Amino acid sequence: MQKVLRRTALAKAQAARRALKRSQKDKASQWGRTLRQEHIAFRASLDDATRARKHRREDYDLGPLAPKRDVGDAAETYGAMDPRRLEGFSKREEERVDVQPIVSGDRVVATEGRDRGRIGEVISVNKKKNECTVKGLNLVDVIVPEWVRTGENNPSPVRSIEKALPLPDVRLVHKLTDAETGHARDVVVRKLVLRDVWHDKHLNIHKRDRIIPGLDIKVPWPKKPPKEQSEHDVDTLRMDVELKTWIPTLLAPPMPATVIDELRNKYSKFRDRHDEAYVAKKVAEDDAARARKKRLGQAASTPQQEAKRKERREKKALGYGDLSDQILAKIGEVMAKNKQPLPKPRRLRASS
Predict the structure, then answer these.
(1) pLDDT single digits (tens) 185-210
(2) What is the pLDDT of residues 13-59, one digit of tens each?
(3) Beta strand 217-219 with 184-188: parallel, antiparallel or unpaired?
(4) Residue in 200, 209, 118 with CA at minimum distance from that of residue 165
(5) What is the pTM of this model?
(6) Contact, 180 vs 121, CB < 8 A?
(7) Does the pLDDT of residue 352 top 50, yes or no?
(8) Burial of 211: CB neighbours in 10 Å, binned 0-12, 13-18, 19+
(9) Which of 66, 76, 108, 284 is the most buried (most CB within 10 A)?
(10) What are the DSSP E strand ranges found in 184-294?
(11) What whole-number distance in Å separates Cα of residue 201 and Cα of residue 198?
């Protein structure tokens, strides 16, 4: 049985090592792809800046003779950017800074960029990219491909879309009421922490409160719109769901005993729970192997080993002898002779 347990532990350890190596390899390959994409995007932005500086120099030098660039294919899309440039890149865990717990529906204010000081509603939050999209803030003109415009009513090739803002560049805005005046006004929350975090692993529900430290003011989460429930002809009726079709009894188990084999692979090398008959069989095999090893050891022993073994058995059969009064008296004399003298108590002198 110990061999089976060791084999199971070894299989689990090997599987864990393989999973760890696979995850590290996938993480490294993903990070490599992200770095390549970032390099391509950086080179594209650098080329755009170089081209813009070149065009500005030409316009300054040529003056009225400068060429017009918003003609031809770029007549309607001149100055707009490629929509692929809007996509951010995933950040490593060590690169993700500690930011405020902001979710969709919150009101935030931009603290950096051209829209600094403006307030907007959060549309979406991406924790992996460490950014959020705010309605009406950081608008950029992007080129809409023709295949996208064919199915829409808007034929314009350029549209204004919100570009994501880094999470460290936004702060939550909360409406507070002044206790003295009774007027409510928007307040920029500098710091926000989470408290009373509760998680139900069975229902996968997270419950936590946002608190402004120092003031102990609870900032409520934005209300989510109710989900629209649509009915269909194939839906099960409520009365059929609540109908009791099986009543439990103590006379028989609710499920057959073999259902455990359907939930766990009976012959898996990772299994650490076994049937009683299987355990008894393995224990009997271990006892038989141990007895066989003992017999082989006795058969291969030398005459000297047999004599020593016989002597040990005889001593064990005699047991421990009783101490006589003379031996006890002798032990007492030796203990009294080797006894250490007690230290003399020190006398304390009275202070004058």
Answers:
(1) 888 998 888 887 777 888 777 788 88
(2) 999 999 999 999 998 898 888 888 888 888 888 888 898 899 999 99
(3) unpaired
(4) 118
(5) 0.61
(6) no
(7) no
(8) middle
(9) 108
(10) 184-188, 193-200, 205-212, 217-219
(11) 10
Please check the confidence at residue 347 and state whether its pLDDT lies above 70: no
Q: Among 70, 55, 83, which residue's Cα sits nearest to residue 141?
A: 83
SS3 content of the chain, % helix, strand, coil (to 5): 40, 15, 40
How far apart (Å, rounded) are the C-alpha atoms in residues 191 and 132? 18
Burial letters for 34-61: b for 16+ Cβ neighbours within 10 Å, e otherwise? Answer: eeeeeeebeeeeeeeeeeeeeeeeeeee
Residue 312 DSSP label: H
Chain-centroid distance, C-alpha 50? 42
Predicted local distance difference test score (pLDDT) of residue 110: 93
Selection from 168, 170, 167 nearest residue 119 by Cα = 170
Apex 122 CA angle, 120 and 128, nearest 5: 140
Token code pair at residue 65: 């003779």
Which pair of structure tokens corresponds to residue 252?
């028989």
Residue 164 vs residues 84, 123, 137: alpha-carbon distances, Å: 13, 10, 9
What are the residue ranges of helices labelled H in 141-271? 146-149, 238-242, 259-263
Q: Is 108 exposed, middle or buried (0-12, 13-18, 19+ CB in 10 A)?
A: buried
- Specify whether the CB–CB gap between 171 and 106 falls below 8 A: no
Q: What is the mean pLDDT of residues 107-124?
A: 92
Residue 36 tokens read as: 């390549």
pLDDT at 320 over 70: yes
SS3 303: helix
Backbone φ, ψ for residue 276 (5° rounding): -65, -40
Tokens at 256, concatenated: 């057959």
Count of CA atoms in the C-beta half-sphere (13 A) of 320:
1
